[in-house]
Each structure stands twice: as C-alpha cells, then as structure tokens.
Design brief:
Layout: H1 2-21, E1 22-26, E2 28-29, E3 32-33, E4 43-44, E5 57-62, E6 71-76, E7 83-87, E8 97-104, E9 108-112, E10 115-119, E11 124-129, E12 145-150, E13 158-170, E14 188-189, E15 194-195, H2 201-208, E16 213-219, H3 221-224, H4 237-240, H5 245-257, E17 262-268, H6 274-277, H7 281-286, E18 294-298, H8 301-305, H9 310-324, E19 331-333, H10 346-360, E20 363-365, H11 367-371, E21 383-385, E22 388-389, H12 391-401, H13 403-406, E23 411-412, E24 440-441, E25 450-452, E26 458-463, E27 468-469, E28 489-490, H14 493-512
Parallel strand pairs: 16-17, 16-18, 18-19, 19-20
Antiparallel strand pairs: 1-13, 1-28, 2-3, 4-7, 5-6, 6-13, 7-12, 8-11, 8-13, 9-10, 9-12, 14-23, 15-20, 17-26, 21-22, 24-27, 25-26
Helix pairs in contact: 1-14, 5-12, 9-10
Amino acid sequence: MSTSFVRLAAILSLASWCAAASSFTPLSFSGQDQESMPGIWFRPNLGTAATVLPLKTRLWATRESVTGGIALKILLEPGSTGIIAMEHSPFPAGSAGITFHAKASQPVVAVVNGVERSVGTSWTKVDYDWASLGSSSSSPDVGWQFVLAIKGPITTRTYVIIDRLGIESPTFDAAPSLSPLAGPDTLFDGDTMFYGAANLAPTIARLNAKQAIKVIGFGDSVTAGVQAYRSTWAMDVAACAPYLYFSHLARLLNARFAYTGVTWQQFGHGGWTADQARGIVDAEVVANATAGDLVFIEFGGNDLAAGRTIAQLKADLKALIDRVQTKTSQIIVMPATLSSVTIGYAAALNTMIQQIVAEEGVAGIDLLAFMASRGAAFGWAMEANEAHPDLMGHITIAEMIAPILTGQHMVYPSDGAPVPSGTTSGTTGTATGTTGTTGTTGTSSTSGSSTTGSTGSAASTGTASTGSSSSGSASTSGSPIDSGGTGSSTCGLGGGLALVLGTLVLCLRRHRD
C-alpha cells in the first residue's frame, strides 16, 4: 500500500510539474491581450502618407482559430509592408520565448527580430526562443514593440491567421491543448446601421450635380485622430488627418461621383463630451458651414464614461444639432465607437439614434452596432486601443458608411470593395478569403493645415482626390474609456498528460513484472 501511495504521489507531482511547464501567457499591453481582444494594440504598419492608399493591409477577427473561437486574420495585398506591431507589457522572466499558431493561404515566412520561421497552409506552431531573438530567459526583451513581419515582397493577395500569440514558460509546449474551429465568418450588412438616409437627399443631389460640398467632422478624440498613427510611426496626428473617417469619406465620394469638389474640415477634441462641445459649436461648425455642407456630429463615448445618462447625451446632441441646423440641414449623428463602457449601452444608443433621427430630421449611423455586430471580441481588430481606430480602422469605417450617400452596398469583413446590392448577409470564406477588386486606388492630395494641442484637439481642412478608382458596381486626451479586461490561460496539458500517462504505464508494468 505504501509503495502504491508513493507512486501515486510521484505521478501527481509529475502532473503538477508538467502543467507548470506548459503555462501560456497571452501577449498583452495595458491589461488587454490578444486572446480575448485580438487586434487591440496590434496594428499594421502602413508605411508613410504616400503609401497608405490603397489600403494594403487589413485586419479582422475571425472564428477560424485554434483556441477560444477567435483569432486575428490579416489580409495582405500586393505592396503591403507585411508588418504588424504591438507595444507590449514586460515578458515574464524564466519563460522560454514567444509562440503563436499560424496558417496562410499560401506558404509564407514569418519574421521576428530577423529570425525566420515557415508557415504553411495548415496550422503551424511557431516558436521563437529568447536566445534566437538575441535575448535571454532571465531578462527577456525584444524592444518596446513586438514586430511580426511576413517576408516580402508581397506580390499576390495573401491571408494569414494568427492565434494563441503569447509567451510559454518555462519551456515550450510541443503539444498544447487546442480546440480548433473552422470558418466561415458571419457578414455584417452595412445598410443595417443607417437611419434617416432619405434626409440626405440634398447632399446626394449635390453630389450627382458635381457641386462643391464640405464634409465637416465635429467630434471627440476619434475625430481628432488620436491613436490613428499607432504602428505607422512615420506619421503623426497631423499627417493622419487626410485618412480619418470623414476625410477619407470625402475621397471616396470624389471617386464615386467622378469629380474633386468634395473637401473636408476637421474639428476634433480629445476627451470631450457633447456637453462641452455645446460651448464651441458656433465658433467651429456654425461659423464655417454652408447650406450645402455635410456635418458629422461624433460625441458620446466620453459622455457615457463620465457618467452622463443616455437622456443627457441625447439632449446635448439635439442641442448641437439645433445649432448646426441654423446653417445646414445635412447632418449625420454618429455617437460612440466600441469600448468596454459603450458596449453596455449598445441597445440604448441605438434607440437614441433612431429617436434623434425622427425628431430632428437628420441621418444617423450606429457605428457601435457595426463594430460589435459579431460580438465585442470581434470588434477590437478595428481599433488601436479602446474607442480609437487606427488608420486602417478609420479607412474601414469610411468605406462602410459611404453607402449612405453612394447607394453602393458594403459588408464586413471584406477587402473594402462594394458588393452587389442583393448581398445582405452571409459568410466569408476561410483562409483563402474573399476575392474581388479594391474599391478605391490612387493617391491623395491635401491642402490646409492641421494642428494638435496638448488636449488632443485637432483642426484641419483639406481636399481629397483620387488618382484612379473602380466604379464599385462589381465590386481624447481624457481617457476614462481606455481600460479593459485582462486575460491569461494555462494550456498545453496535452504534452504533459502524455508524459504522465507514460509514467503511469511504466509504473504499472514494473508493478506487474
């Protein structure tokens, strides 16, 4: 009996050791990790202002994964830098290195700190030990950013899926516990986030007549472009201004209606609420708008984070609308991007938007409904950090909201090209993805100036032009909302369990013999 007890104790001790040997910590920053919030902080490097368009790198969350039912899908178009980067929290001492699972639509080479690893069309576990990255287990470091590159040049459309990105300690697990899930992904029908589109008939008439229109963005840190440059560090806030949701929309409208008369103007204030905006709406929007201009009113996230009620937010937005309507009737109210605060108000915000549209005769876009349409976890891939889209996110938003004026149809996720109007819902493909042409190509030219104060405010004007395009027929400074959950998991019992079972069999054999 005592011998059996000793053997059992040894086996349990070994099992405990194996579990410890296979611990996994997701790559994270500011308490937000890539397992629960894929894409947050982990953003594409789009190069410079001259190479941002056409958009050659897109990210979205996909259900095709090895753990958790969610992973990060990367679409690389020809000419993409192939680089996505993430500021990260300190790596745990005593760990083995960085690990992730990956698959691609064609064989590719993943590069970290100059070290290459092959990735095929089936799931591959990719490990980088600290020594190979020029670091050590006792003091692991790869610089202030984790930079993952797909070796170029990228000459054909390529999809790469990354999952279970993190650190294994104290050794790599050769056979971690996985729960693979295949696609396809559910599509979001872009038309379902529009309200009161008929109220924009005067703007559509001006577009068809090729008359001058100014798109004015009036809002909080999203409109100011806060965090838009994340991972594209060659650009600053001012350089990002021509690629934000309202300015890129101007570019898309010029392309769609084949002229260059749509310009843009920016009034963004980091950390501001709609109540604060009431004090400056006359000086900024009313003083600059004309009867033919289109004004976006984008406030709400900071309001809710500051504890203001939906009723108070509605009253403040209506007050802003009333002032803007002294100059133009063409208004789109678009409150609140995705954050851990706003997601709890999703239904109430939708009701509020519809009420404002009915009461004020304006148009409304429920951006939160779009970003959280497949579940909040799937929406972070559009944001640099909570509430703030990066350049890719802004361009994606512009593509998705353009149909309220162009009459085209968009779904998400996609390559950015409009789809036939009969497409209302459905699913995307797996690693090979969708096919089609890019909706807009060419370069942009801007004029005017952009200034950003310490509060994150930004004011700028410009024009947006497109070199060539397809017709599309076939194709806050204040940051109460910049917080999120943490996540970690312990995986890898597969290899440890096998070792335990092997030891148990050996013990039984010895006992039997």
